[in-house]
Design goal:
The protein is of the alpha/beta class. It has four helices and nine strands. The longest helix is centred in the middle third of the chain and has 14 residues, at about 115-130.
């Protein structure tokens, strides 16, 4: 963490700062999951290092994902998903007690992924099942194209400013989840 950022955080009153070091339900049906276990051989943190010479691999153990429980399943929001998309989805599904994935949004960190990793990721996504996949920033153009070719209109590449209404039908209800994130999309779940 950059020193100015750390200094700003240290200047906050203790009651205004909460370090999330273990899974935390911040509100009923809304959770944060740090330190996502890495149990699948084909997923890695993607080549980040602690040193300029590239010898000390940084596994980025402080990855964080957020999940929201909706009537039709989980909405999972990731930052850069350094733990791996499948690691993250499996952990969130186990932790939340809900195996259904309504949507997953964020950076999937697949920009530099090899073909084998993309193949395995697509296989696992198909097995997990989901309603909407929104790959953003670090997902990578090549990976986004593969997601689109394989998964079709369930994939909506992310772009700032659009909103998604997730749930049944066109009307938002208490069981629907609305997310403002990227390209406009209405998904009618079943």
């Amino acid at each position: 963490m950059p020193l100015p950022t750390l200094a700003a955080l240290n200047a906050l009153a203790r009651e205004r700062l909460h370090w999330v070091i273990q899974p935390l339900e911040i509100s009923p049906g809304v959770g944060l999951d740090p330190s996502i276990p890495r149990l699948i051989a084909f997923e890695d943190a993607g080549g980040f290092f602690f040193d300029p010479s590239g010898e000390a691999l940084d596994p980025i153990c402080d990855d964080l994902a957020m999940w929201i429980r909706a009537a039709q399943g989980l909405v999972v929001i990731v930052g850069c998903c350094h733990a791996g998309l499948i690691h993250t989805l499996r952990f969130v599904r186990t932790l939340s007690g809900d195996s259904r994935v309504l949507a997953v949004l964020g950076g999937f960190h697949l920009r530099d992924a090899r073909a084998e990793r993309l193949d395995r990721t697509l296989e696992c996504l198909t097995e997990i099942g989901f309603g909407l996949v929104v790959p953003c920033h670090c997902s990578g153009d090549g990976a986004i194209e593969r997601l689109l070719r394989t998964l079709g209109d369930r994939v909506q590449p992310g772009a700032g400013g659009a909103s998604y209404a997730l749930g049944r039908g066109r009307q938002r209800s208490p069981s629907s989840v609305a997310i403002v994130n990227s390209q406009a999309h209405q998904w009618s779940g079943g």
